[in-house]
Design goal:
GO terms for molecular function: lyase activity. This is Crotonase/enoyl-CoA hydratase family protein. Pfam families: ECH_1. Keywords: Lyase. By secondary structure, the chain is an alpha/beta fold. It is built from twelve helices and nine strands. Strands 1-2-3-4-6-9 form a six-stranded mixed beta sheet, with helices on both faces. A three-stranded mixed beta sheet has the order 5-7-8. Strand 1 and strand 2 form a beta hairpin. Helix 1 runs parallel beside helix 3, helix 6 crosses helix 7 and helix 10 runs antiparallel to helix 11. Bound molecules: 3-methylmercaptopropionate-CoA (MMPA-CoA) (1HE). The site of 3-methylmercaptopropionate-CoA (MMPA-CoA) (1HE) has 23 residues, from helix 2, helix 3, strand 5 and helix 5.
């Protein structure tokens, strides 16, 4: 396996837990964790390496009161970019977010405060989103004279549907609280700390076999891009590999000898 050299990261704070759950924290709270070029490169770096480094799950968090304010608008203003320059910036965002979505390592986003613009694009590249009562979601690009460039047209549309996505962009509509859950922006809402709950979700996921999680956190996304015919074929191939993995034998044996937990309704 590959090692992750945590000292190489400055805009991200990295922390490995004992169960190989990693905590990845956007670490520019004074800039509301706005995504500058360097932060995106660190995300590319970490999420390119994580699948080969034994990372079992990731909690993606933002330090301070806000998860992420999106594109670093000051850097963008100062750089006065050409169309080609900004296209290349966006391609690096896609590199980072595709590594997240297709990398096969479960990523649980812990959300608080602003989850806006590119911050929502980042959160939507995670596999599960946990929000607290301060979290709010919006796409202010329209108001800023901009357009989404980090995958919102694909991933936010997947979460909320086309009509809500276009409304969010046209009007800057803000979703928060239970409504944000109801429209699909997040899967868990807590009155307490979204970080604590995200860590709980990540730990639960990390108890699965890594190859199962690899399939869950890459195959579903890949199959969405395929025809139904090809997706069914690909699913068969993935299931062939995953469902016969030697490490699964013990779990199947435990079911057979009735020592494994049964699936029961919640209390
Ligand atoms: C920033 C950014 C940023 C804050 N880029 N520096 N995103 C937006 O349109 C969101 C813009 N930000 C905000 O609406 C607010 O800053 C927040 C709601 C996130 C936070 O409000 P608040 O009152 O806590 O903070 P603040 O006073 O507005 O900002 C504190 C500092 O963070 C300040 O810097 P300072 O040096 O003057 O102290 C802000 O400039 C800085 N800051 N947000 C740079 N976004 C690939 S295309 C993606 C397209 C987009 O993402 S468009 C961006 C959408």
């Amino acid at each position: 396996t590959v090692q992750i050299d945590t000292s190489r990261y400055t805009n991200l704070a990295l922390e490995r837990q004992e169960d190989d759950v990693w905590i990845v924290t956007l670490n520019r709270p004074s800039k509301r964790n706005a995504l500058d070029v360097d932060t995106i490169e660190e995300l590319v770096d970490f999420f390119s390496t994580a699948p080969r480094a034994g990372v079992r799950a990731v909690v993606l968090a933002g330090s301070g009161d806000h998860f992420c304010a999106g594109l670093d608008l000051i850097e963008h203003h100062d750089e006065d970019r050409s169309p080609a320059d900004f296209m290349h910036v966006c391609l690096r965002w896609h590199e980072a977010f595709n590594k997240m979505e297709y990398g096969g390592v479960p990523i649980i986003a812990a959300l608080q405060g602003a989850v806006v613009g590119g911050g929502l694009e980042l959160a939507s590249a995670a596999h599960v989103r946990v929000m607290d009562k301060t979290a709010y979601f919006a796409l202010p690009e329209g108001q800023r004279g901009l357009f989404t460039g980090g995958g919102a047209t694909i991933r936010v549309t997947d979460l909320v549907g086309k009509a809500r996505m276009i409304d969010m962009m046209l009007t800057g509509r803000v979703y928060q609280g239970q409504e944000a859950i109801d429209v699909g922006l997040a899967q868990y809402f807590t009155e307490g700390s979204s970080f604590d709950m995200a860590l709980e979700v990540a730990r639960k996921a990390a108890q699965n076999l890594p190859l199962s999680n690899f399939a869950i956190c890459s195959a579903v996304s890949h199959m969405q891009n395929m025809s139904a015919l090809d997706a069914a074929y690909a699913e068969s191939v993935v299931a062939g590999v995953v469902n016969t993995q030697p490490d699964a034998r013990a779990r199947l044996a435990a079911f057979a000898d009735k020592s494994a937990a049964r699936v029961r309704p919640n209390d």
